[in-house]
UniProtKB/TrEMBL annotation:
<dbReference type="GO" id="GO:0071164">
    <property type="term" value="F:RNA cap trimethylguanosine synthase activity"/>
</dbReference>
<comment type="similarity">
    <text>Belongs to the methyltransferase superfamily. Trimethylguanosine synthase family.</text>
</comment>
<dbReference type="Pfam" id="PF09445">
    <property type="entry name" value="Methyltransf_15"/>
</dbReference>
<dbReference type="GO" id="GO:0005634">
    <property type="term" value="C:nucleus"/>
</dbReference>
<dbReference type="InterPro" id="IPR019012">
    <property type="entry name" value="RNA_cap_Gua-N2-MeTrfase"/>
</dbReference>
<dbReference type="InterPro" id="IPR029063">
    <property type="entry name" value="SAM-dependent_MTases_sf"/>
</dbReference>
<protein>
    <recommendedName>
        <fullName>Trimethylguanosine synthase</fullName>
    </recommendedName>
</protein>
């Protein structure tokens, strides 16, 4: 696996200036474009689906400010596992907290938008981009790091993961409590299996079932869960989950019966 070069914007990438250009199903999101990206008018590009899943800039900035408080100071690398059009990766780079920011996105058009948007914010060169599947990356990192190009190799003891996965589309749930075992295309168990060895923060639906999240706490640790609001309304929650393997290789077993939780 390799770092991505600068990818070209494609027909899937748009910068809409007038409401008449915007598909009807996206018009309510487009009305919030300046909250989503304060540099929108500078020429921010989005794909159609990105409007549903992008992290609004104030939330991305708040997460970038708060996440470091949940991990030890010797963590110097952050990986955005689902980079989308770049809102979180840009905020992590702008925070100047990290020596390296790595951003993984599997869709080339979406990644092209992210790279372009990061240029507008003046941080593209501080981000290492990967056009690929983060589960594949994590597998290689853990089992065969030599198959990763040097530019995307990291010291796992110094690395933190951030993941804002798809939630299953705009109508992801009308349930009062969102069952994370049914989340599409990746449920909580799938992500936890892939990320559990390292400190990781997951950006999840605001109504996510806290009991399911609490089960993930490695023995003797706590998971912090924070609701992020824009104009008084919660947009999402982030679960800050300690890694099960502490630096030096000690494994902390997950024992649901003994977990302290949120
Ligand atoms: C909810 S969006 C992320 C939004 C992002 N935080 C932002 O602010 O733009 C999820 C993204 O993950 C990408 N994705 C889905 N599965 C992936 C995978 N296995 N590896 C990497 N990216 C993936 C999708 O293409 C989509 O762009």
């Amino acid at each position: 696996m390799k770092a991505a070069k600068k990818l070209p914007l494609t027909d899937e990438c748009h910068h809409w200036r007038k409401i008449g250009e915007v598909p009807w199903d996206l018009q309510k999101y487009w009305q919030q474009r300046h909250t989503i990206f304060s540099y929108y008018n500078e020429g921010v590009y989005m794909t159609h689906d990105a409007w549903y899943g992008v992290t609004p800039e104030p939330v991305a900035n708040q997460i970038a400010w708060e996440l470091p408080k949940t991990v030890s100071d010797d963590k110097t690398v952050i990986i955005d596992l689902f980079a989308g059009v770049g809102a979180n990766a840009i905020a992590f780079a702008l925070s100047e907290r990290w020596e390296r920011v790595i951003a993984i996105e599997k869709d080339p058009s979406t990644l092209a938008c992210a790279q372009h948007n990061a240029e507008l914010y003046g941080v593209s060169e501080y981000i290492t981009w990967i056009n690929g599947d983060n589960f594949e990356y994590m597998k290689l990192l853990n089992s065969s790091p030599s198959s990763l190009e040097d530019a995307i190799k990291v010291d796992v003891d110094k690395t933190v993961l951030f993941g804002s996965p798809p939630w299953g589309g705009p109508g992801y749930s009308t349930d009062e409590i969102f069952d994370l075992s049914t989340m599409e295309p990746y449920n909580l168990a799938t992500m936890h299996e892939a990320y559990r060895s390292m400190d990781h923060a997951l950006f999840l639906p605001r109504t996510s079932d806290l009991r399911q999240i609490a089960q993930l706490a490695p023995k003797g640790t706590k998971i912090e869960v924070v609701q992020y609001c824009v104009e008084g309304a919660s947009k999402a929650m982030v679960a800050y989950i300690p890694g099960a393997i502490q630096p030096g290789g000690q494994t902390t077993a997950v024992d649901p019966k003994e977990t302290e939780n949120t």
